[in-house]
Design brief:
About 55% of the residues lie in helices and about 15% in strands. The chain has twelve helices and twelve strands. Strands 2-1-5-4-3 form a five-stranded mixed sheet. Strands 7-9-10-12-11 form a five-stranded mixed sheet. A two-stranded antiparallel sheet has the order 6-8. Helix 1 runs antiparallel to helix 4, helix 5 runs antiparallel to helix 6 and helix 8 runs antiparallel to helix 10. The longest helix has about 55 residues. One of its GO terms (molecular function) is phosphorelay sensor kinase activity. It comes from Azospirillum palustre. It is found in: Membrane.
């Protein structure tokens, strides 16, 4: 798998996103900053105008010379200054022919929102003028500003001034903000890039390299050694190492199953020949003069035939898995009776006969759309596990499930499953439900149920017994009419 390029790497994306987010933050900060700058500029002009107007009060007869008046107006950058004191006393400085104001701004009680609007309008008009005039002289508006004096709030100051110097100052402030924003963005981006590269990108590359190596060669890839980090990266490393161990164990188990399949294939021919011979010889027992021998001979023949079939199916299972089922309308009560006879005819591991009650609570006429042989095989595995584990009563019942499904419950009064068996219940060779078992019965039973689109699950297991639930498809009314004709005896399989 090719490594990502510099442009598409996670590091480049982090760098770009950091720059964008810092610039976005600066834009959000810029709006109140430029509005505050404009207000400060105007307040400074008003304060200077107040001081200039006080010279009129100090002059003889409240009159100043034209030269002094022109200097005061030039120093304050205004055309007209009006100072209104309490008692309606007015002091005024004015040029000989002052221009008319294009706009009036009363700053008394102006909120932050209106300050944003006024600053934005000023910059927008300046932008329009720049686009219209290019590099030529820029448009200038004359504005009248009214506010309480910053020096004495009891007095009101009104000035008429050019807006162009204010616009130039705002643009210069904006350029400084932009330069600072770019510098901060680059510095922050570099710091974030270096930090995240060390904390995230390098560990992620290590994880990715481990995944790629494991995909190419699960057995030969070096095991990932997780670090001691307590964050999400550390959790991912530990989980990946655990997953690799689990997958390697599963692969080794599959190899063992493949070896088992090879061994079964080698003995299958000879074993089938031996069983076939035994089956032919046992058929002669039907002619025995002993009534008891004649009574048990059909079951013996059926068991031998089933052993032959089981050899073939075991070979297919180890090679290809469970064969696809052939569902047909099946009388569950009849099937459970046949399974019970098969289970109770099984000897205990110590050689004694099984002494247990097989309680069939399935109502007469209950039909399921299943493969009778495969479902019977799953039930035999469950029943045999129960009686060989020490149960003396096995009860089978049925309940209606969801969406045309049935839930078949197999409950026993045995000693319950061991903790190790519960942890690996459906794992081949690891989840044996009884002492001395190989751990294939429940695994095969679950796979048989899943082949029907159902499920086998453990309901409960304690000192009072164990209960399993089998989810199977219910037979609909259209196919149920032919259930008796289509039913195949489990024993015959």
């Amino acid at each position: 798998m090719p490594r990502p390029t510099v442009a598409t790497s996670l590091s480049a994306k982090l760098l770009l996103l950091t720059i964008l987010f810092v610039l976005l933050a600066e834009v959000l900060i810029y709006a109140p900053s430029i509005a505050r700058f404009r207000m400060s500029y105007l307040e400074e002009r008003l304060a200077a105008a107040h001081i200039a107007a006080l010279s009129v009060e100090a002059a003889p007869d409240l009159m100043v010379t034209k030269e002094l008046q022109a200097k005061l107006l030039a120093y304050t950058g205004t055309h007209v200054i009006d100072l209104i004191q309490p008692g309606a006393r007015v002091y005024m400085l004015s040029r000989p022919m002052p221009p008319q104001a294009d706009a009036v701004y009363d700053l008394r009680g102006t909120g932050m929102g209106m300050q944003f609007v006024d600053a934005g309008n000023a910059l927008w008009l300046a932008l329009e003028g720049a686009l219209a005039n290019g590099i030529g002289p820029q448009r200038n508006r004359v504005i009248r500003v009214i506010d309480r004096s910053p020096n004495d709030p009891a007095q009101r100051v009104e000035v008429t001034m050019d807006e162009r110097p204010l616009i130039d100052a705002m643009l210069d402030f904006s350029r400084r903000i932009l330069a600072v924003s770019v510098a901060i963005s680059l510095i922050a981006a570099i710091l974030v890039y270096v930090t995240l590269h060390a904390l995230l990108v390098r560990p992620m590359r290590r994880l990715t390299a481990g995944v790629v190596a494991f995909r190419r060669d699960p057995d030969g890839a070096p095991p990932l050694v997780p670090g001691t980090r307590g964050d999400e990266i550390g959790v991912a490393e530990r989980e990946l190492a655990a997953m690799q161990g689990t997958v390697r164990a599963a692969l080794r188990q599959r190899e063992r199953l493949a070896t088992l399949g090879t061994a079964v294939a080698k003995i299958n021919h000879d074993l089938r020949g031996i069983l076939s011979t035994a089956s032919l010889l046992s058929e002669r027992l039907t002619e025995s003069a002993d009534p008891e021998v004649r009574r048990v001979t059909p079951r013996l023949v059926a068991s031998l035939d089933r052993a032959v079939e089981l050899c073939s199916q075991t070979l297919s299972f180890t090679r290809d898995g469970v064969l696809p089922p052939s569902p047909a309308p099946t009388d569950l009560r009849r099937l459970v009776e046949e399974v019970g006879a098969e289970v109770l005819a099984t000897a205990r591991p110590d050689g004694g006969r099984v002494e247990a009650d097989w309680v069939n609570d399935i109502p007469t006429g209950t039909l399921a759309q299943v493969d009778a042989a495969q479902l019977g095989r799953a039930l035999v595995n469950l029943g045999r596990n129960a009686v060989q584990a020490g149960a003396d009563r096995v009860r089978l019942s049925i309940q209606a499930g969801q969406a045309d499904r049935l839930t078949l419950t197999v409950a026993d009064n045995g000693p319950g499953l061991a903790p190790r068996a519960r942890e690996n219940l459906f794992q081949p060779f690891a989840g044996s439900a009884r002492a001395g078992g190989v751990g294939l019965g429940l695994a095969i039973a679950r796979e048989l149920l899943r082949a029907h689109g159902g499920e086998l699950r453990l309901v409960e297991s304690d000192a009072a017994g164990t209960a399993f639930a089998l989810d199977i498809p219910q037979c609909n009314a259209d196919t149920g009419a032919v259930a008796v004709a289509a039913h195949k005896s489990f024993v015959s399989h």
